[in-house]
Amino acid sequence: MPLSPLNRASEPPESPTHDSDSDLDLDIQELDPISTEPIRGSRQERTSGEHKTSRIALRNLRMGGLRRATQRGRGYGDLGQDRDGSDEHSQALLGETDGSGPRWSEGSGYGDDDRPLLGGEPSQSRPFVRRERKSSILRLPNFMSGSKNAEPKEEEGQEEDDPSASRHVAVGSSQPVRFPNNIVSNAKYTALTFLPITLYNEFSFFFNLYFLLVALSQAIPALRIGYLLTYIAPLAFVLVITMGKEAFDDIARRRRDTEANSEEYKILVFRDPDSNYNHMRHRKNLKSESMRMGSKKPKGTRDSLSDILEEDGAAAPPPSSVVQEASRKSKDLKVGDVLKLSKGQRVPADVVILKCYTSETSHPARTVEEEPHEEEALLAFGDNEADSVSKGKQPAAETSNDEGDGGSSGETFIRTDQLDGETDWKLRLASPLTQNLPTEEFVRLRVTGGKPDRKVNEFLGTVELMGSRQDALAHHSSLPQNTDASSSAALSIDNTAWANTVIASQATTLAVIMYTGPQTRSALSTAPSRSKTGLLEYEINSLTKILCALTLAISVILVALEGFENTEGNVWYVKIMRFLVLFSTIVPISLRVNLDMGKSAYSWFIQRDPGMPGAVVRTSTIPEDLGRIEYLLSDKTGTLTQNEMEMKKIHVGTVSYANEAMDEVATYVRQGFHIQATTDPATQNMLITPSSTYSSTANVGTTRTRREIGTRVRDVVLALALCHNVTPTVDTEDGKEVTSYQASSPDEIAIVKWTESVGLRLVHRDRKSMILESTEGGRPVVRVRILDVFPFTSEGKRMGIIVHFHEQLNVKNPDLSRGEIWFFQKGADTVMSPIVAANDWLDEETANMAREGLRTLVVGRKKLSYRQYQEFATRYQEASMSISGRDAGMQRVVSHYLENDLELLGVTGVEDKLQKDVKPSLELLRNAGIKIWMLTGDKVETARCVAISSKLVARGQYIYTVAKLKKKDNAQDHLDFLRSKTDACLLIDGESLSLFLTHFRKEFISIAVLLPTVVACRCSPNQKAEVAKLIREHTKKRVCCIGDGGNDVSMIQAADVGVGIVGKEGRQASLAADFSIEQFCHLVKLLVWHGRNSYKRSAKLAQFVIHRGLIIAVCQTMYSIAIKFEPEGLYKDWLLVGYATVYTAAPVLSLVLDKDVDENLANLYPELYKELTSGRSLSYRTFFVWVFVSIYQGGMIQGLSQLLTEVDSPRMVSVSYTVLVLNELLMVAIEITTWHPIMIMSIVGTFVVFIGSTPFLGAYFDLGFLITWGFLWRVLAIGAVSLVPPYAGKLIRRTMKPPSYRKVQST
Questions:
Q1: Residues assigned a catalytic role
Q2: Alpha-carbon distance 1225 to 1283, whole Å?
Q3: Staple partner for 469: which of 98, 443, 675, 1299, CB 3.0–4.6 Å?
Q4: Angle at which helices 1180-1204 and 1210-1231 pack, to 10 degrees?
């Protein structure tokens, strides 16, 4: 008989299973007080709570193996012979032979002595696992004290890792090659790169470079005007503020990274046993002594290996290692470390799964004496056979856990939505070679994998069981020629869990780290974070260039008017340079300071907004861009949806049930599965089958129609309760037992939860049977034997199961020829329509549900006779054995025998629950002129349903689907259609998108950006990022990306504005984003309210600061003309510095509190947001309006001051400077739309400060003149001429062409 995959040992044939040895009374503590207890936990026998008989049977089996082994000249200590040939002491002690016998113990690590245990029934391994965990607890004080020493030290002579080469990893050992640290980093800078990068970013702005040159020019005596500090201090201040903000943001990022990197994980440390071994044997506790010391070990627990060794008189060989548990931070994890992961834990690096086991058993395992014929038969496939059968039946992987044991067969589920956006749980398996290996033998394993790669759905590797730890570490060593295939096994994607996936099942998973830090799949799929600069910055930069050209023009004109030859004292070009320095105020350095302080204020408003609790601004340099968004790229899972499915609707042909009507379904189920309680034993053991004719008192008096509907409801609920791949598991929460469900599809879990809510609960499921109980009576009402399972595939879009119904509860395995055999199937309406019998309502009803955005499944069934099933099984088995066209052949058999004329039972509608207020939020954003794209890693059908249910696609809007496009010939047709129908929604899958981006990049994006909505599914993280970059480059518009998972990080970083939602599964997206929020609906407020305000305020602030600098430059020009074109300063030293700081800064900065409409109006009229995208608030038109106002006001103030006083005198400076300051304060007041108390205080306060400081300005002003009427009337007259015309012009324009916000306020 071929070997089972679970037991790869090549066993000798003669295996006496009965031997009469006397039982032993020595406790394990006497033989080996320390090492054997925790280390060989997996070999210990059952605890005292189990039958004594099983224990003796187990020992006899092991002793039988020993007797036979001794005949071959190998003592019991030979188990470790090939593991550590270098251990001379154990060689001499055990008197080993040359070891040329076949290595029959190597495949499983236990040797043949354990064969009946492992081969017989996988559920047997559960008690051992449980003791393994228990013993590690017992051992805790010992290993904790020495855990520091236990950790393997980094070898000094490690080679550097070559990332382009495949890698060999010795499990549990320090690697000879140095791999990158397992560190997550979202930081933009390091200590070394911070200054160079930030200075480069700052001086790449023309703005700052200009001021640097002006400041440096003051080091030349001929060009110096006033104090050197007045030019250098403002620039230094701007740089310190900006760099300080960058440093603050980056330190915050590092702090969050440190949190993620400091997450504690349990690892297994494998110590060399040689040093401890002699010490352990030196002194043994006697049993009586152990008893007196109150050993924590349960009384009946004994180590079978120790018992036998003691009887045999041989010495215990050291295992390959001594295993200890230790805690280690995520950043300290290294390649080769063995992680111990449990439910709900995030996987910190890319790992290969070695072993899965559970700690609880829902059903007691059978004793060893039971003959496990059926299970043995199930496991009795050779590799090829098992593989071929699994194609159709999935005996182990898909269906589930033996006798409730989720882990004994090496299965675990993981959630990958943080990696690829898919909502389905993925089944992962440990290789049988490593699953059955004792943990302490892991150090003999060597795992080989490919080079670090970004492909999340591919992995090829091997795991080899070497002779010793040293062999595993040596890359060049290979397995001996005469070893059998059980010493190595292939690894695929099914044996891995990538970083940022989450363990979803109860099983404890042991996994070895393959790739760390920057080499993990998720890190390679993530683009490095970049410094983002707002659009407003670029716009101001271009305006600055105009101002600079203006400065140069004025300087040259003034020198030219005097004449280049007539310059006295100075050469003409020195005069031009001095003028340039004088007019440097035209390009106001305070602009950067004001804008940066404004950004800080906006960030503060966002973070303190009570309507957006938990909002965090991570990049405080781009809040204005929130007001300019034209494209929103959103993830689906966790962003638009909660990833929680709920059964909403069921239709049974004549009647549909939803919401409150589900109570009626529950009533029918209660009646249909009601078994009358009687004293008759036959009734007590009775079970319900689909053909049961039941007489329930509840049915008396009901109409025939109601009875028919009741039967239909009962049938469809029964079909839904049986046709799935769900396994119930029991968790303990707060001391209570809570049943939860495990499955790869959340839809199936939703349906099984629904069947429980209406009265039929799934209580047990393994690969052979299912038990359903009535929630009302709590007794089993349906029991089936699973004959075949046909799992769901993306091509087939359906899932089927053949079951045999038990008729009596007390009959364990009824004959197939008795009882009913039924085939149940559920699937998408498109594939099920031709399979089910003719009907007139299916298409209409599925279309109705699809319009509501529900995910529809059609349910059908077919009864099979024993003969029909036998014929099918024979043909199916034959098809599964064929070498070529196996899948197609198997499908043909299923179609011929099963998939025709199914009785249509009903249609279910499952809703993927949306996040709070997603529908109104999307509608509001669309009205605000934002085009919304949904990019998801999920399936096409799922994406379509969510797009409809979330109202991303308007009612009646045509959805044009492009899927599985492989040839570029057809691509042009799709593009032509979309060009002619630009109001359609495009639904495209990743494969087709990839083809378009490769061959029709420009044509595709030019059409796609015109469409109102695009839904792209099956997108990889890189595709999401590429789409974001493409839209940015093609449209030059602002793109916002929002997501919640690790798979969205690339997209978020590629966007102009990245928004992260704090998801259920970690905060990766929120950490990498520029803005972090807690719910999708908060995005509306972030954009429509905060974004709009930030942009409008900054635009007004920027223009006002430019006006403030330009007006003083115009005054300087008028003065220079009056004093015969000499480059002399009008306002020197303190007057110049004071004007830009103390006398005008606060009122101008208070403009960041201005708002044109209140929040309710902004939400009520999202069209107000649409205006901003054109950038009218800060455009060349508005800029030149402000330039004109500045020239007029500067000319009036300086010209009239010079006319009404002497040209070059302190009186003229007193008048013009006073009017200049008052003019700015009043201009701020004119510009304010909505007054705020701080605005009033800043304007009044600044005026008071100016009046109070005038007595100290004697060096510049004529103080005696200030207190005369002559001074006062001059100031009032010049001020009126300066201010009245601009104010009058503003009023006229507002009346003739009112802005939108005025129209809205008046309605």
A1: 635
A2: 11
A3: 443
A4: 150
